[in-house]
Write a structure and sequence with these properties.
heterodimer, A: alpha/beta, Nucleotidyltransferase, domain 5, five-stranded mixed beta sheet, 36 helices, 29 strands, B: alpha/beta, four-stranded parallel beta sheet, 8 strands, 50% helix, 10% strand
Chain lengths: 977, 438
Amino acid sequence: MRIGLDVGSTTLKCVVLDDSNKILFHSYERHFSQIIAKSAELMEKIRNQFPQWSDKPVDICISGSAGMGFAERAGIPFAQEVYATKVAVDTLVPGTDTVIELGGEDAKILFLTNGLEVRMNGSCAGGTGAFIDQMATLLNTTPTDMNDYAKEHEKIYTIASRCGVFAKSDIQPLINQGARIQDISASIFYAVVNQTVAGLAQGREIKGNIVYLGGPLTFFSELRRSFDKTLKLEGTCPENSLYFVALGAALLTETERKPMTLTDAIKAIEGSGEGASYLSTEPLFKSHEDYDEFKRRHDRDTVATVPAEGYSGAAYLGIDAGSTTIKAVVIDRDENILLTSYRPNSGNPVPLIREFLTDMYEKYPGIRIESSAVTGYGEEIIKNAFKADMGIVETMAHFTAAKKFLPEVDFIIDIGGQDIKCFKIRNGAIDNIFLNEACSSGCGSFLQTFAGALNYNIEEFAKLGLYADRPVDLGSRCTVFMNSSVKQAQKDGASIENISAGLSVSVVKNALYKVIRAPSKDASVSLGKNIVVQGGTFLNDAVLRAFEQEIGANVIRPSIAGLMGAYGVALYAKKNSKGSSTLMNAEELKNFKHEVKAVTCGLCNNRCRLTINTFDGDRKFIGGNRCERPITNKSNRELINFYDYKLQLLSAYMNENVPDKPSGRGIIGIPLGLNLYELLPFWHKFFTSLGFDVVTSPLSGRKLYIKGQQTIPSDTVCYPAKLLHGHIESLLESGVTNIFYPCMTYNIDEHLGDNHYNCPVVAYYPEVISSNVPGLAKVNFMYPYLGIHRPKDLAVKLYEYLKERFPSLTQAEVKSAANAAYKEYDAHMEALRIKGDEYIARARKIGMPIIVLAGRPYHVDPEINHGIDRLITECGAAVITEDSIAMKMPRVKTHVLNQWTYHSRMYAAAKYIASQDDMNLVQLVSFGCGVDAITTDEVRSIIESEGKIYTQIKIDEITNLGAVKIRLRSLFAALEK
Amino acid sequence: MANNSIESYPMQRIPFTKEMKDNNYTVLVPNMLPIHFKMLVRIFRYYGYNAVLLTNEGHDVIEEGLKYVHNDTCYPALLVIGQMISALNSGKFDVNKTALMITQTGGGCRASNYIHLLRKALIKAGYGNIPVISLNLSGLEKDSGFSFTLPMIRKCIDALAYGDIIMLLKNQVRPYEAVAGTVDALVEKWAGEISDQLDAGKGCSIKEIRANMKQIAADFAAVETVERSCVKVGIVGEIYVKFASLANNNLEGFLAEQGCEVMVPGIMGFMLFKVDNRREDILLYGGSKAKKAVVELLLGYFEKIEAVMLECVGDYPKFAKPTPYQETKKLIDGVIGRGCKMGEGWLLTAEMLELIHHGYSNIVCAQPFGCLPNHIVGKGMIRRLKEIHPNSNIVPIDYDPGATKVNQENRIKLMLAVAREKMTPSPQKKDSQTIVHA
């Protein structure tokens, strides 16, 4: 008898085989992190079921991602789980080429033929089963229902697949815009597929006989179908697909034998929890007295409520349509609270608000709404649906509310369901905003999901941690990491109480060190002297306590912490009341109708997926748009957008059409990515001067990215670099046989810094392309190391390199072509500067504020910048670039080594902006840009040294434009003051 | 804003002055390679600097790093800076009489900015008055109180070479030692012996180096060993994560527990690489002949010592002898360009190839999460290496404060399972077996 036990991240799977590989017993259950108890129980069950074996030695082997330390401590042989899968597949499904196995939190691909290779998701990639669970929670449904919904999808939305947190920030806006649950569900499955393919295939094509294994692929037919469609093949999900790891472990007992009786095994398992240790932090409360004192202090911060029953008179409504919850507050003339509502938005906020309003009109006929306002992600749709009077940006709403509790407030932190917002107040205006970037949530919904996974509701779960003696130290990284930290802590024997407390602490640390990045030594310096904390997450006493402990200061938590946004909106509505409201009345509400349709906008290259909401049959609201064109059907008013101009300037050098017959020496293909966004004029001139035709890859787009995603070797490199793979693929498709993409350690020396490097990724990405794109073997891929910073030498080196490939070239020709190229480049850069001045002058003439959207040359790519330039022009500002103004400043003295050409421009531009009253800076930062970890702090300090507001926007494959809008609107709101 | 905010941070750095040296300021040096750095510190002490090697580890180091360094910065910066601030907080040193030392390589990778990040962190943590000494060969920063003189540089190179040979032989012999602890005792003995010689100004001529290394090799060769079947694993990676157990969760220890023999290419290769890059730049892009000559002179000294070391190891055929630098460099032809120089550059790829050639085809490529050069020279090259050497079995592992040890070890175990399968030519020829339900 052989027992294979697969201890996964969320489930426990077990098989018992006899000597002829017959399955005598199998079981599959969730372990709720009670690994030791559940495993022992399971062995007990086996012992009872097979009494004839109870005192005979049997072979046991443990496997699974959560089984390693456990097996070691129990002294039971362990098999690595991917390897176990391989052994099981070799035995049970011979002839398999590739295995795709998704588990609770792991994704794996095994290439079995042509060189065994096994790939597991890296430390960054989120789980898959857990991810699907999380998404189902977000949609307020079950994974099984999600599968059913997906069957009826009409369209697929793009959802970031790198990790759950990213995906969440994509799904939330979809929900808020009223996208269909069927479409969202299907899109989630596709996101999982893209994640697996992009993250794990890494240049190896998935083909041949494919086997699907593991829970998610067994349970969800639509997930399998999504894989089939994406890979263009038909995989099979064999019998016992849930048990392959356990089967492999059972089969592997042949190689590593350590027979023991079941009784001994149970003893060993039960004893394996002893002596385990983990890192811990201070307890939250040492005693009940501590807690009572704390309670008393916070219970003082309340707002008066007046019963709504029998109230008669004017009232003001505030609605906060947040990411995961919908909040509403109605106040009376004295700003006392009449009514509140706090509900999960369940993926569709419109019916909830309708219900609330209907209820209010019915139950409290005396309430007369004189003014109403809306804020939050769902601001636009709610305002449109119910004809609310006004909208207000979230940050202003929170500030308005916080002032009510603490007039001298100078720091507000709000931890909500899905986001963290913090802002500093200086001179009565919002001065500095920190929003969590797409990668680092770890907020309320994380706690909630985790509580759910451990079978608790959130309130119970949070309370557990109050008196924990040794809270687990879980670090402060993103939620996915926290998941595995929790797993490890459980294995190390941490109690639920200590995990609960640890999670609360980690939420706080995340906010402090990841979002605000405040050194905690002195809260009054790094945060403020008068701190108000709010957001539903702070209603959790453990989180509040952890926060106070971490910053070493007491803070104010209003009793309505979860409703502060809505309360602030109500206050704002009251202040700006015109005496009568446009809000729908009871009659209109009765006849309220809401239909949703999804379409793709074809008005420009962005191809936004639009959701068209129709209210009452005639009022339309469009969501998902990045500009006003689909709404007004024409271009915006006076637009001053230097990004458009830059693209237009470049378009003179772009050419996607491969000539049938080359006009001279041949055709050179150039990928339009990374540094070539700036150097295209240079190389275009160089090659055309020599009599070549130049063909470029098209502007980036989602499709182009997908085309190349299979060959990306590192899933944590920046998105602009990843896009290169697509550019190369499209050049290959176009049929060009020469591709030129040089390696460049150094950039042009503009004398703005101590050196003039490119970043390592820009410098050497051609090497990655060369080693990972198989199609290049068939063409002449030229990626020489060139020093563009030394013009004279460059001509010589270029000749040496090119003559081998094009023997007819002469040294004189190459030299003169290089000269022409430098001239062209200089003229191009000069044009940017001259035109930049013109744009600035134009803006100044009409009194338009100027935003310098600072990034790198490739940020001009619409697929990379996600149309953020347009968002800014929509806010009524002019957009210019850093490279058009950088040369206005002499070299800037910095606190860091100023050694990258592109970044030197940024420092110089920042310095210049700081000196201009009507200019402000917004810095675009690509996710994964290591260099920007250094430059952002420096640019911030340059900007802030002149009392200006620094705004940073992190962008990736997908960007939550809703959050970007908040940032921009808050910036403009602050500038108005 | 209060006055310790970055906005008002002085542009003028605090220099390490001659008076500070004369007043016997403690100079804290972060640890990367225990054997090597112990000897380096002795050299600094010999030249009159009160250098102390930091050995503080533990969670506090990471915590301080997270607090004072931008969290997206690479893990080594976070650790080194965290280690220093944690040490300053410990109360063991008089913070009014302490200086810090950090290496500065220069180059297009983030690492050349560590010193600036350290200074920023010190100000945030309230230690803005503490001077930081840049240890570099590029003339990036100079201090009146610290001069990295030529004799001192030479001695440091010697110490690194000694460290490399001891580490190399330790790794090859320890897994097979008959009596546990023999090799560790030998390492202790030689690290001490060489340090004493350096203290006395000895052990630095080529002749003395050869004599010492001959004896070191003889001593290791004489260790009584037993036959064991070990998986041969090579370790490459970002320099700090590759070497420092603080950064790689004691990777070598873990592999030893798993019954592996490890091979960690030494630091001399990295030094040669960094010097050679200046020459390579001139070859690729043009430049001064005089500068090239100076670089070649320095390169010559490194190579002379390298040759002595290889000669001494080569005396015993049972030892795997590292490939000379110039040979290693040829391994990458057709794989990656010699101009790829940021961070570990092409050397990392070359070291993987070297390891494969020596039979260490199972490789852990260790890097900080999001390490820029390693997108190219590590993860970016694995596919190509697999094409050339289908037998290679390379696992990239990311390290950062959030990554858990259990995930890292699980991935390494997978690599080891594949390695073991390759060692034992398939025991049971697998016919299709069926499993049926009872």
